[in-house]
Specification:
Length: 171
């Protein structure tokens, strides 16, 4: 498990695909002004498909997230992992985030703290990913389902993207 950047073209494809099939998309935007959003994963695997969860600056505790905490820091909560927005991503559409190559020292230190938290909590993270996936795909809580990515639709989009854009491509 590591931090990754998800290919923007693939992310836009998933957003468009979900919107076309569902009428709305919950796939998060990954473009920010100063830093693009990145993801932690693979947090789970479903039918051979790896899922990645966004590392977000969102700091409010909710059922579908895990707060990233650094107890020794003055500002303990650094952000969260938001499992209702996790997405399936082919290996060809992710790039490992090399933290030591980040020039902004303050941001690099924050990333190291977030990464350490994620590595120390891998089991808990995987358990939460599986739980949220199961709750959403079986529609056990309508409000959660409504505010989550449609995982089955995204898996169809994942397969279509591979077929259309990656099959036969030399990686």
């Amino acid at each position: 498990m590591d931090f990754y950047r998800i290919d923007e073209k693939y992310n836009r494809f998933l957003q468009d695909y979900e919107k076309e099939k569902r009428g709305v998309t919950k796939v998060p935007n990954i473009r920010y002004t100063d830093h693009n959003k990145f993801a932690f994963g693979a947090v789970m695997q479903v039918n051979g498909i790896n899922y990645y969860v966004s590392v977000s600056s969102f700091e409010k505790k909710q059922e579908a997230n895990i707060l990233i905490r650094v107890p020794e820091d003055e500002k303990e909560v650094k952000g969260s992992l938001r499992f209702n927005y996790m997405v399936p991503v082919p290996d060809e559409c992710i790039e490992k985030l090399i933290i030591k190559d980040i020039e902004d020292e303050k941001y690099r230190l924050l990333l190291n703290k977030e990464y350490r938290f994620c590595k120390e909590n891998e089991g808990r993270i995987q358990k939460k990913a599986n739980k949220i996936y199961e709750l959403v795909t079986t529609n056990r809580k309508q409000i959660l389902t409504d505010n989550s990515c449609a995982f089955h639709i995204l898996e169809e989009g994942y397969r279509e993207y591979i077929e259309k854009y990656l099959k036969g491509r030399i990686v």
